[in-house]
Amino acid sequence: MSDDETTPTPNRILIVNADDFGLSHGINRGIIAAHERGIVTSASLMVRWPAATEAATYGREHPALSLGLHLDLREWIYRNENWEQLYEVVATDDITAVAEEATRQLAAFRQLTGRDPTHLDSHQHVHRAEPVHSLLSIMAAALNVPLRHYHDGITYCGDFYGQSGKGEPYAQGITTEALINTLAVLPAGVTELGCHPGLDNDFDSVYAGERAQEVETLCDARVRAALIAAGNELRSFRDFEKGSAALAQSGAERG
Question: Which CATH number fits the domain 12-254, given the four candidates 3.40.50.200, 3.20.20.370, 3.40.190.10, 2.70.20.10?
Answer without folding.
Answer: 3.20.20.370
